[in-house]
Amino acid sequence: MALRIFETDPDAKPKQSFSDDTVGRFHGGKQVDNLPVALSAWRVTTGDPTVAEAVAHIMGGTPVETDSTSENFIEVLTTRDKVQVVLSGSDAISSDLKLWNGSALIHHCDGVEFLSPDEDKGKPCRCPELMEDRKAAAKTKRGPSPSIAVTFRLAEDYDLGLFKLQTGSWKLAEVLHEVENALDRIDGEALCSIELELVEYTTKKGRDVSYRKPVIRVLKSYNDAIAGPKQF
Question: For strand 162-167 and strand 145-154, is the pairing parallel, antiparallel, or unpaired?
Fold first, then answer.
């Protein structure tokens, strides 16, 4: 479900729990001395040494065991800011809006109606209609931010298992409906590229700004890709 309206990585702090059907997570940042740090290449975390070795073989980097949280896991700081992946379709993407107070979810909606708790589900959430107003509210902790999850396989090692990317990027939220529409136009699985795209510009006051934003590019049908010359 896409947000009904449309740069951070809320998953930068590793909160590893591989209790779902995924074998690893993609991140655009990490925590250093309890501070979030953006990365120029993908960071992948997993609880499986075999998965870590495979990711390092495909994307570069070296698997490193870490116990920076209450759970041990393996981290690969890759050397790639883009990688080709396979999405099952638009159902591989989920998105909503969330506002947290510590570990408590205090606002959960789709931009129009509450999604939880059960007693509020379906009621108007009264979020601002314009994206800029929503961003302003979220910045001051008065409103929710995007919560986007993308599940995929690596095109270069399809059978390795499912990976997940979780992000709160407003930039991705703005175009998520376009990505989902492109996926819906493909019959079956889609070959895509997930990227940490570099954005650079100079403000009117002369300040140079540089950051990375997560991007999903829908390339073609995966069946067509594997039927033709190998390109991964």
Answer: antiparallel
CA-CA-CA-CA torsion for 207, 148, 221, 231, nearest 10 degrees?
A: 50
Q: How far apart are CA 43 and CA 28, in angstroms?
A: 6
Residue linked to tokens 């998520």: 176
CA distances from 168 to 98, 99, 144, 171 (A): 9, 11, 10, 9
SS3 of residue 157 by DSSP: helix
Assess whether the previous peptide bond of 10 is cis (omega < 30° from 0): no
Question: What are the average pLDDT values for consecutive 10-residue runs of the chain, which has 232 residues?
Answer: 42 46 94 87 96 98 79 88 97 96 93 94 93 93 95 97 96 95 96 95 88 95 81 60
Alpha-carbon distance of 200 to 209, in angstroms, equals 6
Using alpha carbons, select from 75, 56, 73, 72 the residue that is nearest to residue 64.
75
User: In this predicted model, what pLDDT tens digit does every residue of 159-185 receive, in sequence order?
Assistant: 999 999 999 999 999 999 999 999 999
